[in-house]
Amino acid sequence: MTTIGDVAKAAGVSRSTVSYALSGNRPISRETRERIDAAISELGFTVNAGARALATSQTMVLGLLLQFHEDEFPPAMLQYILAVSDAARELGYDILMVTDGDGPGAIRRITSSNMVDGVVLLDVTHDDPRLEALRQARQPGALVGLPRDTEGLDVFDLDFGEAARLIVDHLYGLGHHDIVLVSPPRHVFERGGAYAWRFRDAALERAARYGIRIHAHYGESQQPGIERSLNAILDTRTDATALIVHNDASIAALPGVLRERGTVVPRDLSVVSLYSRDFGRTFLLPYTAVETSPDGLGRKAVQHLVRRIAEPAYGPPVVGFIEPELTDRGSTA
Hints:
Elements (H helix, E strand, L loop, with lengths): L3 H8 L3 H9 L6 H14 L5 H8 L4 E5 L8 H17 L3 E5 L4 H10 L5 E4 L9 H6 L4 E4 L9 E5 L1 H14 L4 E6 L2 H6 L2 H17 L2 E6 L6 H12 L5 E4 L2 H14 L8 E5 L2 H6 L5 E3 L3 H17 L8 E4 L3 E2 L6
Parallel strand pairs: 1-2, 1-3, 3-4, 4-5, 5-11, 6-7, 6-8, 8-9, 9-10
Antiparallel strand pairs: 10-12
Helix pairs in contact: 1-2, 1-3, 5-14, 8-10, 11-12
């Protein structure tokens, strides 16, 4: 079995330096850390979690808190779960996924019992009831999603307002003046999913500046409601020349709906959306879209959280936005 001494010898450092690198108890140089990481990878060294917990009071486990709502589209949430778990694994951490409906109680339970070294929150709402419990915890936390009050928290999200402006600018530049917007379901707005109204309101504001019309409709998240809703919207807005879809379930179903209607994109209707590259490949989506970057957001949140675990005094809280990027796949004209 490979030991910490073997790692130290391969990296050309002392055993204590390897220990510091693993525990984060003392700062070491980037070059030294990279040599140690390379030696660990080459030798296949695995730290005994129990021994580390006793020696450093660290569990090497991150809590991942989320809720699976029956009325939501599971593949969308799965993108973020995979991103967080992959980033954590790369940094030597395991994930404790908690789906307890009592979010504040779950945070208090896993932090007060020292089950985790830090917490990642997904599915963050505008007035998220979990935030106060997270602020009171000894362990640091990171959010994927923007709440109303970010005080004392590290927050990472897509700039949904800028994404909306980017899309409206794109369509206006092509001469579109009558546009349909399919938003997330009504229940997402009612639950406090701020990303939904951040995008919708920015799109409406931008359109008003240009003097163009955007007709905003709630979409659905489950069949058969998804296809029924899309057909009803398209039947109502027959004069629209462009469709913006900010709804993962709806954009996944849209190719089949348009095929059944005999609608050819972009000859009959321009289509633009928001989704990740992986999501697009999964559902064979051919549409011009803003990259939603679940992998980038999950990675940033985990990396920042692990840095805070290693260095509790590391800088002030961060609110970081990923700038939207529009990929033109030829579905607008």
